[in-house]
Structure formats: structure tokens, C-alpha cells
Task: structure prediction
Amino acid sequence: MEGASNQKKKGWFKKIFSVILAVTVLVWLAVFDLSSRNTLQVEFFDVGQGDSSLIKTPSGADILIDGGPSLAVLQGLGESLPFWKHDIDLMVLTHPDHDHLAGLLEVLKRYRVKSILWSGAVKDTAEFKEWVRLIAEEHSDIEIARAGTRINFDRDPGHFIEVLYPELDLSGVAVKDTNNSSVVLKLVYGEKKFLFTGDIYSETEEGLSGGDIGLDADVLKVAHHGSKYSASDIFLAKVDPGVAVISVGQNTYGHPSPETLEMLEKYDIKVLRTDLAGDITFITDGQNLSFKTEK
Ligand SMILES: [Zn+2]
Result:
């Protein structure tokens, strides 16, 4: 009888020990994740023909801008976020076209999305209706993006995201051209700046260049996958980036166009393309900036 009771005790010790070990491992993994986050990272996922990028802040916020055209974004998030992280702090939809929206629908189904920033512009497609349904179900905090909206992601006033475009509140508006209504964002982290331009055309770029908004950026996400109708001369001169990212995959539109590539060369801007480089990751401490590519 005594033997059986000892066996039982041993079994319990084993179980308790396993639980303690598992908890310890999880705590250390969390500590390791936080300590590896003393820099800000911006990742441009290789999602084929579309856009999707993830900003990971040192304070632990994960900000997803667009989701690309497919499930590829899930792979990017899965590889980039620790396995226990199932929430996105801020999701941004630049405009409701398939190559930016479809992946976000999949993310909404699988992750808890705390806040959403979008223009509110509507589109008559099944995917757009699904977006409206999913964000209502998610009960996220919704912010309509308008020029001047500023989002601070930690306590430092020098760390923020600012909306540069559109000027107007487009909630409920069936815009003529969704590309040209894209939310344009500037991410500022100390001295380093990133400009996200969605799919805007040259005319919008030029309109922004004429104003007194600071467009200067170290990294420019080239508008509309390098289309010849974007990346205008005056805009590139004003932004004056060191690096340009073109998020592009196999397509029949001729993206990126030779005209855009020539224009970027004219300004001696280093070009990184997701179709050639795979995922592209920038790392900055606010003063220095480096990048690595998957391929
Ligand atoms: Zn697009």
C-alpha cells in the first residue's frame, strides 16, 4: 500500500515540476522578447503583389499597415511575433483594395485587434462588406484617419505616427479612385523617419509636396508598387529618402515601371524590392538605421 502512495506522490511531484518548468520557460521567453525590443523594427513582408508592413515598437506595440492580397501576411506575423502574441495593437487599412485588404480580413479572424485606423472610404465589393462586418464584430477602437491625426505609441513625444493624408473625413464616401484616397502616414522615431504612401498617384504626391508638412524621410515606401503614375520628381526631391522600398510581386501592370526605377536612380536612392529581397526589415534606435533582407 505504502509503495502505491509513494508512486502517487512521485507522479504529483513530476506534474508540478513540469508545470513550474513550463512557466519558467515562458517567463524567460517573454523577458527575452522584451529585451530584444530595445530598438524599433519596421518589416515589409513579401506578400506578392500588394502591401503589408509591421512596426514593432520597443514598448511592445505591434502596428500592422495593410495585409496584402492573401494569407501570406499570417506567415509574416507568425515568424515575426512571439508564439503567444495573438493581438495587434493597431491595424491600419490604407484603402479598401484587394491587394491591401484581403490579408487583413484573415488577421481579423485570427488575432485580437485592439485599434483600427482607416479612412472610412467605402467600396462596393464583397471583401469590403466583410471588412465592415469583421471590424464591427471585433469591437476595436476605430479612428478615422485625417491629416493631422497623431498617434503616440510610447511616452516619448518624439515617437509617433502622423496621418498626412487624406485631408477630409472620408467616412461613408464612395470615392472615385480608392488608390488616390490612400492613408499616407509618417512614422517618426527620434531622428529616423519612414513614409508610407499606400497607392497614391503623382497628383497627390505633388499636392503634399506643395504644403508645409515635413515630408522628409529616411525610408520611403514607394507608392502604388512602383507604378509609373507615382514617385514623381518633386515628391522624391522633397522626401529625399536614402532607401526606397517597393512592395511588389508577379503582376501584369508592369510594376515597378522603368520610369520609376530611373527616377529613383536619378536621386541616388537605394532601392529594395520585396519580389527580389523577400521580407525587408529595418532596425533603428532613433539615431542609427540598418536593414536586413530575407534573400
Ligand atoms: Zn496596391
About this structure: The chain has a mean pLDDT of 93. The first strand starts at residue 40 and ends at 44. Helices lie at 2-35, 72-80, 98-110, 126-138, 202-210, 233-239, 258-266, 274-277. The pocket of zinc ion is lined by residues 50-51, 97, 99-100, 199, 224-225 (CB under 6 Å).
